Amino acid sequence: MTGGVPPQEHIPLFNPFAEGFTDNPYPQYAMLRETAPVYPHPMGFWVVTRYADVFALLRSGASVELRNVTAGAMVNLRQKDESRRTPLIDGFSMIDRDAPDHTRLRRLVQKAFTPKSIQALAPRIGELVDGMLDRIAASGRADLVPELASPLPFAVIAEMLGAPPTDHERIRELSATMVRSLEPVADPAVMQAIEAADEELAGITAEMIAWKRKNPADDLMTALIEAEEDGDKLSDDELIAQITLLYIAGHETTVNLLANGTLALLRHPDQLAALRADAALLPNAVDELLRYDSPLQSSRRITVEPTVLSGVEIPAGSFVIGGLASANRDEAHWGPDADKLRLDREGARGHLAFGSGSHHCLGAALARLEATITFERMLPRFPKLALDGEVSWNGRINVRGVASLPVAVG
User: Fold this and answer.
1) What SUPFAM superfamilies does the annotation carry (predicted)?
2) How far apart are alpha carbons 215 and 219 in whole angstroms?
3) Which of 36, 66, 244, 318 has its CA 20 to 30 A from that of 133?
4) Can you tell me the distance from the alpha carbon of 215 to that of 217, in angstroms, rounded to the nearest whole number?
5) CB 112 within 8 A of CB 220
6) DSSP letter string over 312-340?
7) How is residue 33 annotated by DSSP?
């Protein structure tokens, strides 16, 4: 390790289990950026929190495959955990694979995930949003998470895939359990629940794929089944993993974008008023909301060679947490008002909420489209939209979002 690391007793311990962290992690991120931006945690992993360093890490060619962890106490933890069955999605999902496997999988999936196909969903997304807003208007108040932010992205990804008739509510429950695999998990009961959900969801997905092979249509699932390049097609296990990933990634993070974004607007009435007064602000506003409160807080990488960030050398084989949400509040990059919501912020699209580099989120355009349509329809429809009760958070460290957002619509 080279210069830049303060004495151990002066390093603020990164503690995501601290009381209040999941409600507001940003003070802890700010302390790390200021005093230990490249922080070797006593548990054996590293935490990187400044924008320039996180950006460099994501684009460095570092690995995402856990088998490449060779340095630090993380190795001992993984060895203790070897008896746990690896979820199928971890073995075959493109987000958990390096090149050339990642390149191949992403290229095949991307063939069915074009900008044209995403934009074609706009009318249907508008219909879904209007229907949900109709129900909210009829009651005069609602919890926006279960009544809009959660069902909308799930309905969109299910229709985009062309999912056959099945128990969609059960799939949503299973994906909510599966997403906990992205969190630090120590409770054996939770780990067992994740494994069981993975196995059940894989079985449901396999049945849907079998049905779709007999009933092809103009949809994403058919396109994935038929996707081919130079004779290369997705295997059955790869198909199951990518479709499972689309359910989880296409749902959970967008829920947080819609809920966290709405809460941020309601807590900043001056910015909400500016958006109401100028609809042209909306595209930049969506990116500023993503920057201000990122739906996904961090992204992991494993160094494949010694890597120097902010003057600190991280050994090869180290597990590194790249703080996406922290980078998106870094004053050195965004200026002294980085902690402020400013919908007209220049360069807002440069946020790292969708990652960067080869693993940049494939569904970024879809998430932006869903948020744009939701806000452009909800805000004019409910000019008196206001908080109407206590807001609660989902208690998650990584896929962090509002769990309950009670509002009155006037």
Assistant:
1) Cytochrome P450
2) 11
3) 244
4) 7
5) yes
6) EEEPTT-EEEEEHHHHTT-HHHH-TTTTS
7) H
